[in-house]
Specification:
Elements: H1 2-18, H2 20-36, H3 38-52, H4 59-86, H5 88-95, H6 100-125, H7 129-152, H8 157-164, H9 166-184, H10 196-200, H11 204-227, H12 230-243, H13 245-266, H14 272-295, H15 297-305, H16 316-338, H17 344-361, H18 366-389, H19 401-418
Length: about 425
């Protein structure tokens, strides 16, 4: 929660410092980054689970294994950086970013963040919740400090992205590394041979589902940049941030829903009541938010973001409705992951592909885009709920009790990173 508050402060501070037009460009880069870090949740969850179940051996072996993983991640990040620098102009066109060198940093930043995820996964596996919490808060604090300092010094948007994302990630890697060594002790240089590829293959369905959800949550900000000018697309990005408040609630509820549903399903108990209960709690929070956004959209955007954010005021209520529907889909996603189902991935894939199509079809105004997204997300939520409430028992690939707990904890701390662009 503290990390999310700091992230929100960073977002508002940078939006005000940059102005609406430049913030739209920053938001597109950060939106791609938030999509890229979701697959790292698979590694984080797998590391937490392997550590919990003793697959990484004693602490001295586990820290040696972790160090080997980090070396590989750094080499992979460097290779990706070289490739992206060669393709920087194409990436800049794709992301609608004015500085090609900045566009080239987006994908490597996602790979670099994986180092943080692996360290947090190992810490979660030994019950190091306090060090993980310190790491989450530290990361958002560095982003605020470095990003705002660059903005106040008059840096261009590309340099602000560099300071607030990849540069801010580096001290977090060192900070989390110190916390990990303090918790696990020194390395004995005898790693257990668990490769990153093996680690990544542990949770293929959850990582695919969460990545597709991240695309559903962020692809519209990227697509709008292709069909509207910089000021209008920047205002849309600011409205999208405001509308995502309900998603943070869904992430917290999902932390409870996934392990509880897995536990009840493993006992042969019908777990659908848990999805109904968490959905009702979500709506209890969402309805007042929707009412406020419906009656005071212009005032809220102006108060929070200033500048020309009010240009997106007509779209805000519809965007909030779309994010509420998307949050319902997120809870259904967590429920189906707990039960080991896979068929819902087809729906998420169709929805992710449909987002830029909706933006392209309804490009007459931001309000029209938001209404189109609301229709899409409402259909998706209805279908996800239909699949969920028709699933009474655990499937072949359902989580065991302890595995669900480990995955939910790892997933939640990583999902918090992607909640606020």
């Amino acid at each position: 929660m503290a990390g999310n508050i700091l992230a929100l402060v960073t977002t508002i501070a940078l939006a005000r410092a940059l102005g609406t037009a430049d913030y739209g460009e920053l938001a597109r880069m950060v939106s791609v980054f938030t999509i890229l870090i979701v697959p790292a949740t698979a590694l984080q969850a797998a590391a937490a689970r392997d550590m919990t179940l003793g697959r990484l051996g004693p602490a001295s072996h586990a820290i040696a294994t972790l160090q080997g993983w980090l070396v590989r991640i750094m080499l992979l990040t460097f290779g990706v950086l070289v490739a992206c620098m060669l393709l920087r102009h194409q990436l800049a066109d794709l992301l609608q970013v004015s500085q090609p060198w900045a566009a080239a940093l987006v994908i490597p930043s996602g790979f670099l963040w994986t180092a943080v995820a692996l360290q947090r996964g190992v810490l979660l596996g030994v019950g190091g919740y306090r060090p993980v919490a310190m790491s989450l808060i530290g990361e958002q604090g560095f982003r605020l400090l470095f990003g705002l300092a660059a903005a106040l010094l008059g840096a261009e948007v590309g340099l602000i992205f560099f300071c607030s994302v990849p540069l801010a990630t580096i001290p977090v890697i060192f900070m989390t590394g110190v916390l990990t060594r303090r918790r696990l002790g020194p390395s004995d240089r005898k790693p257990i041979r668990v490769g990153l590829r093996d680690l990544a293959s542990r949770n293929p369905v959850p990582v695919a589902a969460l990545t597709l959800f991240a695309v559903l949550q962020n692809a519209d900000v990227i697509a709008v940049g292709h069909f509207f000018n910089t000021t209008i697309s920047g205002a849309y990005a600011q409205a999208a941030v405001a509308a995502k408040g309900v998603v943070w609630i869904a992430i917290g509820l999902g932390l409870y829903l996934l392990p509880e549903a897995a536990r009840e399903a493993a006992k042969g108990v019908d777990a659908r009541h848990l999805l109904g209960r968490t959905s009702a709690l979500l709506m209890l929070v969402a309805v007042p938010i929707l009412a406020i956004f419906a009656f005071f959209p212009e005032q809220i955007l102006t108060l929070v973001f200033g500048d020309q954010a009010a240009l997106a005021a007509p779209a805000l209520p519809w965007l909030a409705g779309a994010m509420t529907c998307l949050s319902i889909s997120y809870l259904a996603l967590q429920f189906l992951i707990a039960l080991g189902r896979r068929s819902f991935l087809v729906l998420l894939t169709i929805g992710a592909v449909a987002v830029p199509v909706v933006v392209a079809i309804r490009d007459s105004s931001l309000e029209s885009v938001a209404i189109g997204l609301l229709i899409l997300d409402a259909i998706l939520a209805a279908l996800m709920l239909a699949i969920s409430f028709s699933a009474r028992t655990a499937g072949e690939h359902s989580f065991a009790d302890g595995e669900a707990e480990a995955f939910a904890l790892a997933e939640a701390s990583a999902a918090a990173e992607a909640a606020i662009p």
